[in-house]
Amino acid sequence: MKTRILAGLLLAASAQACANAAPAQDKPAPAAHTGKHTGGQTAVPSAAAVKAAKYAVTTYRNRVVETLARLVSHNTVADPNLPSDRNPVHIAFKNTLKSEAERLGFDFADHGWVVIVGMGQGSERVGIVTHGDVQPVDPSKWKKSPFVLDQASEPGKLLARGAEDDKGPIATALYAMKALKDQQLPLSKRIELYVYMGEESNWEPLVEFLKTHEPPQMNITLDAEYPAVVAEKASGTIAVTIPKTGAQAAPAGPSIAAFAGGFFGSQIPEDASATIANATPALEAQIRARGAKQDGMRYAFVWRGSELQVTAHGVSAHSSKPEDGVNAVAMLADALAVRPWANTTAGGVVNFLNELLGTGLYGEKFGSIAYRDGFMGPMTVAPTVIRQKDDGIEVSVNLRRPQGKSAQQLTNEVNAALAGWQERNLPLANISVRTGEPWLRRDAPQVPVLMNVFSYFTGVKDPKPVAIGGGTNSRLFPNAVSFGPGMPGEVYTGHSEHEFITLKQLLLNLQMYTAVLAELAK
User: Fold this and answer.
1) What pLDDT shows up at residue 176?
2) Of 164, 112, 222, 314, whose CA–CA distance to 516 is shortest?
3) Would you place residue 43 in the very low, low, confident or very high pLDDT band (cuts 50, 70, 90)?
4) What pTM did the predictor assign?
5) Rounded CA gap, 269 and 39, in Å?
6) Separation CA 513–CA 49 (nearest Å)
7) Beta strands 234-243 and 392-401: pairing type?
8) Are strands 466-468 and 229-232 parallel, antiparallel or unpaired?
9) pLDDT per residue as tens digits for the range 316-347
10) Distances (CA, A) of 142 to 67, 70, 200
11) Whole-angstrom Cα distance, residue 103 to residue 449?
């Protein structure tokens, strides 16, 4: 699931897709999003689609896991110094994908950053949009290598980086296509599986590719959640540096000497640390007591002379769903709020976090920036990375904003809040406020089919499309909406240090993808 979206790129790439987005803050989901109903009941998929889905899960339940294991074995994290089309690990992954596609009887085209696995003929096409790159990972936090499919540590779960985001969907899409091929369904449309190799880091190569490549007329993206995603918040970042220049000198008493945390910008951080100079046992006891009141947090305290190092451990999550994690950066700053702290560089970081962010999720303390939309939900605001720079300590805050405010209004409100904080504390440096645009697809013709298939295979009555905080490549493809792989109400594990997909969910996805393709391509 996409995380770092630059405003200029998305404004250019998705202007047409967003042209129909409702500007009103509390506009409800459009009526066009609902499925077809007969007597109040969602329509059922065709008998041929159901038969193909059952065939897929009974025939390929083991092979889809084997293919997933081969796909996750490649560490396809982006290398900032090596483009994907020249990255040997990415090339090896594509070679594995090519072998899988050819073994299953599909055609394969490698366009560098994009590969296309195709089946059938026809001027009309149905596209499946996925990605083969993955987010960074800390191997020390995994029971086994994150690039080996772990089926033993937690029975029923398939653990690996990419298992849910997004190599599991690739594997299930391949066998959904294979099931249709085996069943020899009379399809009138060609099916194409797109695998992009830069979704997590760089959308520009895909934007350039689509300028000269004509994509399918209808697309489903397998990179979010069910029942179907027709709206996505915009991703944004507030970045500031608490500078060394202008910071207060350390006082004689206790002061914050160091503060750091987080791994990458689209992950709710599960690790943070602080060093307190001239600490006292009484101060440690206060911090311990305050931290003990925080749900989901663990703390460790180590003395080195008069310095006290405090290490915090929370729960990582996708930054578009901060409610699924426990933010160690925010919680550690809160645990330290047992006394006033001088605005040393590190002390300024703690004061910035506590005064403007706190432990909330929606930016309520950050001036007047907080707002919500009736369909897309509230803007979420989460500190994700605190890192030492040559000129100070950088604080990076991840935003996920819905429709309802313009980018300019939000930027002005952020800058006003930052100006107020500086007046009360110390000057900031390297201030940056960036955001893309929220996205809403009103009229995707396949939505009723997706609702019908989802309802039939899950038993959920009268499902409705949803909005998410993340961003997917649906924005760049015509008539594209997301369909899985995550179930509504379940914790999305992509981007976390405990990524998995259950075997049950993998097989359910296989059935639903098979049925949907059978319906859309018939």
Assistant:
1) 98
2) 222
3) confident
4) 0.89
5) 48
6) 10
7) antiparallel
8) parallel
9) 999 999 999 999 999 999 999 999 999 999 99
10) 21, 19, 21
11) 30
